[in-house]
């Protein structure tokens, strides 16, 4: 589970994605990454998360702010984002506990992953 707030800040997402991948490798099974606390986001942020969480590359590469640290590590960020996107290793499913369709989508994703 990853808080939806992590997706809004690329610096946190770049830390959360490898952590999720590490747990998947340690458990030796497929993992469903759930974006929680969607109900706590504003409408603008919710739309941003819902439209952007399909592609990790766009979230990481386009969202990182300019600065000395980010300029130095821009190539590393792009490389990590490319690997995550190209091999479909990291996908997120948004969960809004108020929206029944969101819950059904999550259950379908879990069912598909288990089989």
Structure explained in plain terms:
The protein has one domain. The chain is built from 7 helices and 3 strands, in the order βααβααααβα. Helix 2 packs antiparallel against helix 4 and helix 4 runs antiparallel to helix 6. With 115 residues, the protein is mainly alpha-helical. 20% of the residues are buried. Pfam families: ATP_bind_1. It comes from Pristionchus fissidentatus.
In short:
GO terms for molecular function: GTP binding; GTPase activity. The protein has helices at 4-8, 10-27, 43-52, 56-63, 68-72, 74-86, 100-114; strands spanning 2-3, 33-36, 92-94. By secondary structure, it is mainly α.
Layout of helices and strands, plus pairs?
Blueprint: E1 2-3, H1 4-8, H2 10-27, E2 33-36, H3 43-52, H4 56-63, H5 68-72, H6 74-86, E3 92-94, H7 100-114
Parallel strand pairs: 1-2, 2-3
Helix pairs in contact: 2-4, 4-6
Function: Small GTPase required for proper nuclear import of RNA polymerase II and III (RNAPII and RNAPIII). May act at an RNAP assembly step prior to nuclear import.
Subunit structure: Binds to RNA polymerase II (RNAPII).
Organism: Pristionchus fissidentatus
State the main characteristics.
single chain; 115 residues; mainly alpha; three-stranded parallel β-sheet; 7 helices; globular; hydrolase; GTPase activity; GTP binding; GTP-binding
How many discrete domains? 1
Number of helical regions: 7
Give the tally of β-strands.
Answer: 3
Based on secondary structure, the structural category is mainly alpha
Instruction: Give helix % range.
Output: 55-70%
Family: Belongs to the GPN-loop GTPase family.
GO molecular function: GTP binding; GTPase activity
Protein name: GPN-loop GTPase 3
Keywords: GTP-binding, Hydrolase, Nucleotide-binding
């Amino acid at each position: 589970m990853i808080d939806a707030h992590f997706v809004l800040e690329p610096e946190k997402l770049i830390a959360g994605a490898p952590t999720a991948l590490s747990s998947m490798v340690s458990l030796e099974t497929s993992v469903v990454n759930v974006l929680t606390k969607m109900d706590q986001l504003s409408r603008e942020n919710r739309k941003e998360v819902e439209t952007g969480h399909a592609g990790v590359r766009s979230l990481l590469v386009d969202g990182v702010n300019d600065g000395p640290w980010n300029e130095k590590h821009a190539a590393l960020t792009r490389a990590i984002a490319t690997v995550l996107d190209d091999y479909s290793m990291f996908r997120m499913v948004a969960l809004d506990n108020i929206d029944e369709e969101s819950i059904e989508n999550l259950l379908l994703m879990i069912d598909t992953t288990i089989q």
